[in-house]
Amino acid sequence: MGDYKHILLAADFSIHGEEVAKRAKDLADKYQAKLSVVHVVDNLPLTDAAYGPVIPFDLDLTEELMTAAKDRLAKLAESLGIADDRQCIAVGSPKLEIIRVAEENQVDLIVVGSHGRHGLALLLGSTANGVLHHAHCDVLAVRLKSE
Ligand code: AMP
User: Fold this and answer.
1) Residue ID of nearest Cα to ligand 1 atom 14
2) Residue 14 CB contacts under 8 Å (≥ 6 apart), including other chains
3) pLDDT tens, 77-114?
4) Pocket, ligand 1, Cβ cutoff 6 A
5) Ordered domains of the chain (ranges, CATH)
6) Does 147 have pLDDT greater than 70?
């Protein structure tokens, strides 16, 4: 295993996120690597026919979510010393977008939590699992345990 040059933290702003962020930051410091952060605004529920007219597809709502997400990401990035041009917000499927951003930025390590906002029911959360299976670079799934 060579030195990592560019590490991507996938941040979902869940309660365990701090632990995952800390691990990514420690690794970036250790390897003197660039550290970037991505958050994906998952817009799927807004277009899910199962919700019918209760939650219509609404572009403004997506934009509002984006604005709130950017704010949150900026705060997290500031605490980690990550500059504006290394903060990325995407919309769509978290697993696909995390992989796309990693490839576009020639990232060589993606850091995710083993679980996110969807709880600890599975051995590995679905986003973490998807990233692990499809990424072309190394993936670190930081093991998060229930309290
Ligand atoms: P999950 O597989 O949804 O339980 O989440 C596992 C990990 O995937 C989280 O700890 C995050 O590192 C990452 N992740 C999940 N959803 C997102 C998202 N919307 N944006 C960025 N990273 C995410």
Assistant:
1) 12
2) 113, 115, 116, 117
3) 999 999 999 999 999 999 999 999 999 999 999 999 99
4) 10-12, 14, 20, 38-40, 42, 94, 98, 112-113, 115-116, 118, 125-128
5) 6-143 (3.40.50.620)
6) no
